[in-house]
Automatic annotation (TrEMBL):
Domain of life: Eukaryota
Species lineage: Eukaryota, Metazoa, Chordata, Craniata, Vertebrata
Biological process annotations from GO: mitochondrial respiratory chain complex assembly; protein insertion into mitochondrial outer membrane
GO cellular component, one term: mitochondrial outer membrane
Entry membrane topology: Multi-pass membrane protein
Pfam families the record matches: Omp85 (PF01103)
Species, as recorded: Takifugu rubripes
Disordered, as annotated region: 1-24
Keywords: Membrane, Mitochondrion, Mitochondrion outer membrane, Transmembrane, Transmembrane beta strand
This protein's record includes keyword Mitochondrion: yes
Similarity comment: family membership: Belongs to the SAM50/omp85 family.
Protein's gene: api5
Protein localization: Mitochondrion outer membrane
Stretches of the chain forming a coiled coil according to its record: none
Name of the protein this chain belongs to: Apoptosis inhibitor 5
Length: 469
């Protein structure tokens, strides 16, 4: 569930790590050197053969694409570098528990004086693997149990079943993943899932049962995703005192939508980056392929990071979105945007600003949110070079607005409405990075620009998640 897309229940991520496969822990490949090989350091060499030992059910044609670049190496250092890159590609396939590399001089009658043989010693994953992990979402936590069948047909296909029990939702899903040979970034994924979520800020419970199919592929420097999703949504009241507006939205609906996403990510870390940028753009069209929901939805995310003096980092973020109902039917509470909380506009309660009825927040059809952050090392640098480097001091300024629009008024009226009654906050705190999984924030917040009906969290506020403004 995204930070502002609180009602869009997503199926479980079916790409959780298998036990024993840690591509992030890749080390430089081992090189077996003999005395006669030392003379090759500064001479041209020819890679005569590449062997892969340890294969059982993996097809040879899958690996040919991943290791073919080694034959283009011209010297020993180049061979080592290309072997390392090939090892990374083999581990990325998610079908091997271990991959080791041995480089040796060629042997046999046809061996050239400057010939080399490269051998990859691989250990395949078992036919069935289990995984257990915890997921930290936007102020939510869950336990995930999974069963995965890696390399089902011998070409890096994967079938996964995962069950998640969380603080606010219970989910399970079945997924089939199929990459293209020679281009792992181009892949197809099919999901069948059921997701149940509770949203106390809206006194709403939602259960989604759906199926989706998506194609992901690289284009220039971007990652593109095309997706079709059909979902049967069941909305109900979470509390007896739910407002009439929420009760009116309760019931069953069917959404069929086509969506496109584009991502450019040059950050050096997705959790607490110190350099690089991120651009995400997402479009969704519902109703064109059937269903009760009909709308066009656009949203984007922009983030820039710059390292300054004394190991400090300046970060700027901007989010925005718009949903345009098609036809006479208004947008659904399950499709609108939500804003506020420790992962977006700090100093406000979770998703508790904007349109509301009798204390239940109904979401908005348009929003924007911006953030300016300064991250610095802890004062006096305790634990420098070790555990202390996981902590950062955090100074922030957040601002944003969420509202409904009258689409007959025109763009200028829309901009004026989004510029009115801006909520903003500032403060400082401490950030803890939990590896490449998530981050925790403990901030002292001072909310400003509070409007009637907004819920605030003045003072200490705790946040946990993956995506922060």
């Amino acid at each position: 569930m995204g930070t502002v897309h609180a009602r869009s229940l997503d199926p479980l991520p079916m790409q959780g790590p298998e036990l024993g496969v840690q591509p992030d822990d890749i080390e430089a490949p081992g090189v077996a050197r003999e005395p006669q090989q030392e003379v090759l350091d500064n001479k041209n060499v020819i890679v005569q053969r590449v062997h892969i030992d340890g294969l059982c059910r993996t097809k040879d044609d899958l690996l040919t694409h991943e290791i073919s670049g080694i034959f283009g190496a011209k010297n020993l250092i180049d061979v080592m570098q290309k072997s390392h890159e090939a090892r990374q590609r083999l581990l990325r396939l998610g079908i091997f528990r271990k991959v080791e590399v041995v480089i040796d001089t060629s042997q046999g009658k046809d061996a050239l004086p400057n010939g080399l043989d490269v051998t990859f010693e691989v250990t395949e994953l078992r036919r069935m693997t289990g995984s257990y992990n915890t997921m930290v979402g936007n102020n939510e936590g869950s336990m995930v149990l999974g069963v995965k069948l890696p390399n089902v047909f011998g070409r890096a296909e994967k079938v996964s079943f995962e069950f998640s029990y969380g603080t606010k939702e219970t989910s399970y899903g079945l997924s089939l993943f199929k990459p293209q040979q020679g281009n792992f970034e181009r892949n197809v994924r099919i999901n069948v899932y059921k997701v149940t979520g509770q949203f106390p800020w809206s006194s709403l419970r939602e259960t989604d049962r759906g199926v989706s199919a998506q194609l992901t592929f690289p284009m220039l420097k971007t990652s593109q995703t095309l997706k079709w999703e059909g979902v049967w949504r069941e909305l109900g009241c979470l509390a007896p005192g739910a407002s009439f507006a929420v009760r009116e939205e309760s019931g069953h609906s069917l959404k069929s939508s086509l969506s496109h996403a584009m991502v450019i990510d040059t950050r050096n870390s997705s959790i607490l980056p110190s350099s690089g940028g991120l651009l995400k753009m997402h479009q969704e069209l519902a109703g064109f392929t059937g269903g009760d929901a009909s709308f066009l939805k656009e949203d984007f995310e922009l983030q820039l990071n710059k390292t300054l003096l004394w190991d400090s980092v300046l970060s700027a973020s901007l989010w925005g979105g718009l949903i345009l109902p098609i036809g006479d039917k208004p947008s659904s509470i399950a499709d609108r945007f939500y804003l506020g909380g420790p992962t977006s506009i700090r100093g406000f309660s979770m998703y508790s600003l904007g349109p509301q009825s009798e204390g239940d927040y109904l979401g908005g059809e348009a929003y924007w949110a911006g953030g300016l952050h300064l991250y610095t090392p802890l004062p006096f640098r305790p634990g420098r070079g070790g555990f202390g480097d996981l902590f950062r001091t955090h100074f922030f300024l957040n601002a944003g607005n969420l509202c409904n629009l009258n689409y007959g008024e025109g763009p200028q009226a829309h901009l004026r409405k989004l510029a009115e009654c801006i909520r903003w906050s500032y403060g400082l705190g401490v950030v803890l990075r939990l590896g490449n999984i998530a981050r925790l924030e403990l901030n002292y917040c001072i909310p400003m620009g509070v409007q009637s009906g907004d819920r605030i969290c003045n003072g200490i506020q705790f946040g946990a998640g993956i995506r922060f403004l």
